[in-house]
Amino acid sequence: MSLQIYNTMSRKQEAFIPQEPGKVKMYVCGPTVYDYIHIGNARPAIFFDVARRYLEAIGYEVDYLVNFTDVDDKLIRKAEQLGTSVPEVADRFIAAFYEDTEGLGVKRATRNPRVTEHVPEIIALIEELVAQGAAYPSAGDVYFRTKSFANYGQLSHQNLEELQLGIRIGIDERKEDPQDFVLWKSAKPGEISWESPWGPGRPGWHIECSAMARKYLGDTLDIHGGGNDLQFPHHECECAQSESLTGKPLSNYWMHNGFINIDNQKMSKSLGNGITVHELLKRIKPEAIRYFMLSGHYRAPLNFSDDTVEQALGSVERITNCRVNLEHRLAAVSPDGSHTAGWHLVEDAPIGALRYEPASGDESLDTRLQELKARFTAKMDDDFNTPDAITVLFELVAEANQLLKQPVVAARSIDAVLGLMDSMDGVLGLLPTVDEAAGLLDAEVDALIVERTKVRSEKNWKRADEIRDLLAEQGILLEDTPQGIRWRRK
């Protein structure tokens, strides 16, 4: 089976066929950078990171854009509160976004375009819409004529009359129709602004993505993503603007992730139950947060609670401990600790399969690993079904644990299991980051363990106890195994 994606536009699962073979143009709406991101923002960051990783794992070159909205009413209010400028607020929270998302194992996008760096392109796009009659200036603002676009409502599957109920409409004499939406907002006294043919002002929210997506990825995207809350009005308005201008679909596949509830309640400002990633990372391991986000299908709602995160942490530790045990056993059977060529890259692997093949030298093990690899691929091909893909990863953990129980194991066999585990985790990103993983093999800890073994043989129990206490203070757990002492962090 080739990759299938549930398309919000068609409301059905479709075979993924990019416009250009081997390349994917992917745009995901990013945050408004006026504060730290909350866990609702973290869900699309993590899920679409996994989607991007999987597309790359099966051989695609992915041009992946996540924008920053760095000017709007929220930033203006925040700048006033802090007694600073809008650009300084944006810079501060863009830096915080990178810190928080990279802490969650999210790879940086190919580009993170900022609205303030693309005002000329936005103005040019608005001018084109005005010239063709799809937009009109009014008292320094510019509005899109919603009724000029016959397909308005196609993404949310509602007609204009139904959508009327979903729009907060006040009396605004500047609009020809209450459903028209703003493309350019005239500046109020003292506000940040740019010169335009309609006077000083700033871009409306919807127009920014149309302009930046068009500049970097062309008229039609392969994948456009974001949270369910963006489906209407943001993405609906993007469709209207872009497709009015080009006569082409803005995106061939639309993907939207579900909401996150907090203790079975909707996360909202009115309830005051929002949780920022910045605070969450101070008390919860990032791998546990990432596991929680991927433990449910991306289109389904998720419920965040202390219990669900505790369960996620236990699951991640099972995977991590298994991998550490494999590395430890491999070092025992291979004096220099090096890996043999248990897995090798398949240069001409077909699209739709992870590009690795096992070569453990054990025919029965190779067969089981091939089956697990095929099942993992099938789950990810089924609209990025991460919870079922994680289930396959745990089956690999069980296979690895059985292998480790054997008194004699070939290095090639261990290496083959490690290779498959790493290729699966290369998609899911559940294991500790490189820096954290390196900590598990820290030379100073290894040296202390060697010293402790030596002083114990000399019956220097005082020094042996001192070393154990020192390691315990650092959160290091020692375990006796048939291959000698191994250690791990709590």
Automatic annotation (TrEMBL):
Positions of the Cysteinyl-tRNA synthetase class Ia DALR domain: 375-439
Q: Which SUPFAM superfamilies match?
A: Anticodon-binding domain of a subclass of class I aminoacyl-tRNA synthetases, Nucleotidylyl transferase
Q: Where is this motif: 'KMSKS' region?
A: 266-270
Question: According to its UniProt record, where is this protein located?
Answer: Cytoplasm
Picking any one GO molecular function of the record gives:
ATP binding
Example GO BP: cysteinyl-tRNA aminoacylation
Q: What is its main location?
A: cytoplasm
Q: Which cofactor does it need?
A: Zn(2+)
Q: Family per UniProt?
A: Belongs to the class-I aminoacyl-tRNA synthetase family.
| Assembly behavior | Monomer.
Under PANTHER family, the record lists:
CYSTEINE--TRNA LIGASE, CYTOPLASMIC, CYSTEINYL-TRNA SYNTHETASE
Protein name per UniProt: Cysteine--tRNA ligase
Query: Gene behind this chain?
Result: cysS
